[in-house]
Amino acid sequence: xxxxxxxxxILEITPYKGGEKLVxxxxxxxxxxxxxxxxAAQAAVIEAAKHMELYPDGSAAALRxxxxxxxxxxxxxxVCGSGSDEIFxxxxxxxxxxxxxxxxxxxxxxxxxxxxQQAGAETRSAxxxxxxxxxxxxxxxxxxxxxxxxxANPNNPTGSYxxxxxxxxxxxxxxxxVLLVLDGAYAEYVRNNDYSAGMELAGEQANVLxxxxxxxxxxxxxxxxxxxxxxxxxxxxxHRTRGPFNVSAVAQAAGIAALNDDAFQAKSADHxxxxxxxxxxxxxxxxxxxxxxxxxxxxxxxxxxxxxxSAEADAFLRGRGVVIRNVNVYGxxxxxxxxxxxxxxxxxxxxAIEAFAKS
Length: 359
Ligand SMILES: *Cc1c(COP(=O)(O)O)cnc(C)c1O
Description:
Elements: H1 8-11, E1 26-27, H2 39-48, H3 61-71, E2 78-81, H4 83-95, E3 101-105, H5 110-118, E4 122-126, H6 135-140, E5 146-152, H7 164-172, E6 179-183, H8 199-204, E7 208-213, E8 226-229, H9 232-241, H10 249-260, H11 262-285, E9 289-290, E10 297-301, H12 310-319, E11 322-323, E12 325-326, E13 335-339, H13 343-358
Parallel strand pairs: 1-11, 3-4, 3-5, 5-6, 6-7
Antiparallel strand pairs: 2-8, 7-8, 9-10, 10-13, 12-13
Pyridoxal-5'-phosphate (PLP) binds next to helix 4.
C-alpha cells in the first residue's frame, strides 16, 4: 500500500537550509545580529512570559501601532507575520495558482522560488549585471501570467542594491495587476542617499508591497517576526490568508520594545558599517575579490584554481572554527557569503582567510 501522496509541485521543492551551526565555531552564515538584541526586547520577553496561557492579539494591533508611529504610516495598512518569510508564503497562497509565474532577479533570495513552487507557479529569473538586479531584464520577463515581481533590496546573498529611481522605474514598467514586492530585510543598514526601502511607493501605489523583518538589525530571528505595508486590498488579502494567531504574544511584545530602542539599532548599524569595511579591505588585501555590500554580510569570490576554490576555503575556514555560507544554491559556486560578526569574530575570520591565502 502507498501512503498519502503530496502534490508533485511540493515534492519538487528542495527544502530551505539555514546557516549551519557548529559547536565552538563562529556562526557567520545566517546574517544574524552579532550584538544580540535590544536589552529592552529581552525584558519585554520575560514580562510576556508571565502570561503564556493567553492567546495573543491576532491582529497584533499594538505592534502595528508601534510600527505605524515609528515610520509615520497607517497601522491599518500593516500586516505582521511569523518572519517576513510567512508574509511571502501568504502572498503565494493569496495570489498564485498553477500556471502563474513570479519574476525575480537571477541571484534573488531563495524563498521566493519556494513560494512559487508551493503554488505550482513558475519562477522567472532575470540576468543581473555585476551581481546587481537589472530592471530592464526583469521587466522583459513579465508576461500575462506574471502575478508578482520580487525584489530584495538590498539583495541577499549579493549585498547589492538598486537606487530608488530604479525601483520606481521597475514599478512604472509593470502592469497594474502585477504586485511588486519590495523586500527590505536589510534596509536599516543602508546609508546610501539614493536608496529607499520603498515605504513611499507602498503608501501611494495600488500594486506595491514593502516587507520588513525583525530578524536582522533587531536581532530577533529566533522569535520569527516580520511585517508588510502596502495597499488596503493586498493587506486585506494577507489578513484573510494568515492563521488567526500567526504572531506569538512574546514576539509582539519584543517587537514593540525593539522598535523603540533606537540606540540599539544605531549601535548595530554603526558596528556593521565599520566592520564591513574592515572585513572587505582585509579580504581583498589577502588576495580575494569581494563584492560591494550594503547589507550585514559580504560575498567573497575565490579562484577556480586547485587549492584556492570556494569549497576548499569553506573547509579550511571550518577547520579554524569559522562557518560562512556556501551559496551554490544561488548559482554562485565560486563564492562564499560571510556575515559580519563581532569584532573578535571578524578578527578570526580575517586571520583564517589570510592563512588560507598562504596555505
Ligand atoms: C534574512 C532575510 C529575510 C528575513 O526573513 P525572516 O523570515 O523575516 O527571518 C527576508 N529577506 C531576505 C532577502 C533575507 O535575507
